[in-house]
Amino acid sequence: MTLEEKRHLYFGYIFQKEYAPFGFNKYKDSLNLYARKKLTKKTITKMLFFIEYILSKKPFDLKVLKYQAYLYKKSKNNIGYATTKKKIMLVKDAILSTGNGRSSETAYHVIYRDHELDIFKLLKIKFNGTRKTIDKFRIERLYAKPNNQNIKGLFFNVKAFKLNLKSKKQLFIF
Fold first, then answer.
1. Which of 22, 80, 86, 109 is most open to solvent, judged by the fewest CB atoms within 10 Å of its CB?
2. Between residues 20 and 155, which one has the greater pLDDT?
3. What is the DSSP string of 109-139?
């Protein structure tokens, strides 16, 4: 898949009627409950069921995708593991291709708020808990704890989940 195709898939999802940037999936609680149990073939099967349901509603949930990859690896499902790792890389590549996050002009574009913290983890930077919304709620700046990279914080373009569908027509011009 080309980078352009990854971007179309990830950012194009906001135009689907299923897209819901906010909200809670009740199956995450069930997944978390099973995650506390000992991993057996039965618990892995049950957790993968919950994961499939969650991903049917929010297909780009990186935390759930990472957990799915982990469970596939544990159950020695190499095809499932490889497929899930490709999905994770698709999301990361699409986001990282939008900028470098160092300024509001070069902010990373995201379609879910969760992806902001996922990028922090990817870059091995810790979030200090402070978030500032700027530029008419279009940009969020998340501040970092002191780090070896000397990054004070990262900027994220969040207009995808702040606008209604009519406003989304000229949304992604990078």
1. 22
2. 155
3. E-SSTHHHHHHHHHTT--EEEEEEEETTTTE
